[in-house]
Design brief:
- The chain has one domain (12-267).
- 23% of the residues lie in helices and 31% in strands.
- The strands form 4 sheets. The protein has a 10-stranded mixed barrel.
- The protein is of the alpha+beta class.
- A hairpin with a 2-residue loop joins strand 16 (247-249) and strand 17 (252-253).
Length: 275
């Protein structure tokens, strides 16, 4: 086992990496400063690299904002063979060696491709400097670039959000997906909001998902998206909300739909019934 401190002795390089990880918030500030330097805050933010459920072969994670709730969305596995690649774009980009690679997607045209176009909205020098920073501090497995129309979201007055995991059934092959809820909707639920871990940051001349900061002053760093760390499942404390109540026939769950999802989240106290 080639893990520093678990299988091989610790070395000075390991401690250097540990220091970088511990000071990740300082790195977020530095990366936001690069975004400010190049004036790309309308389209780019920083995201904590974290994996959800394993994807089945031949699928990718695709975001859908249509859950009938302002600021809410869900992200599910989508089949690559049937994906409309001309009508989807990357939302999270991880540095793989020297190139950024998208690993999560959303429907529609990339906001970076609008207006002045990719060359102006995503300057090569900006991407190169971000890549160099991530490489220098061994952060490519910790922090990624997020692409979103932050200017539009801020203009619409969207707020901070809480991200939770949902498993639609108890079977090993049950559908699993991520739901992002506005904190105002989450707070109206009867179940107490669990500890929240920040996962996304951006800068803007307007509040970013409830955060403060501007292109000229990215401090203080405030998160816009949070991961709700622990929720109580039907049998034990878990990171997932396991939904098992709705039966379509026998013991089988009805296929997941937006209306059923919101109904179940309300019944379990994660949102209010009228959300």
């Amino acid at each position: 086992m080639d893990i520093p401190g678990l299988g091989r002795p610790l070395g000075n390089p390991d401690l250097g990496v540990a220091g970088s990880m511990y000071n990740s918030l300082a790195h977020v500030k530095a990366l936001l400063a690069l975004i400010a330097k190049y004036g790309t805050g309308a389209f780019f933010g920083i995201h904590l690299v974290h994996r959800h459920d394993l994807l089945s072969k031949g699928t990718v994670r695709l975001e859908n904002e249509d859950i009938g709730m302002k600021g809410g969305l869900w992200t599910k596995a989508a089949a690559i063979d049937s994906a409309d690649v001309k009508n989807m774009h990357g939302t999270l980009f991880k540095l793989d060696q020297k190139a950024f690679v998208p690993f999560e997607f959303a429907a529609g045209l990339s906001p970076v491709a609008t207006g002045a176009g990719v060359t102006k909205n995503a300057p090569a020098a900006f991407l190169a400097e971000v890549a160099a920073y991530l490489t220098k501090y061994n952060l490519s497995d910790s922090l990624a670039l997020e692409v979103k129309d932050f200017a539009l979201h801020n203009a619409q007055g969207l707020e901070r959000t809480a991200e939770i995991e949902v498993q639609w059934g108890e079977e090993a092959d049950a559908d699993s997906f991520t739901v992002v809820l506005p904190l105002s909707a989450r707070n109206r639920g009867t179940r107490t909001v669990a500890d929240l871990t920040p996962t996304g940051w951006c800068i803007s001349r307007e509040p970013c998902g409830g955060a403060s900061g501007s292109p000229s002053d990215p401090d203080p760093v405030q998160p816009g998206t949070h991961y709700e760390k622990v929720v109580v499942g039907p049998k034990k404390d878990t990171h997932k909300v396991v939904i098992t109540n709705i039966a379509s026939s026998g013991s089988a769950l009805a296929p997941v739909t937006v209306s059923l999802l919101l109904q179940e989240l309300a019944d379990m106290g994660f949102i209010a019934a009228e959300a």
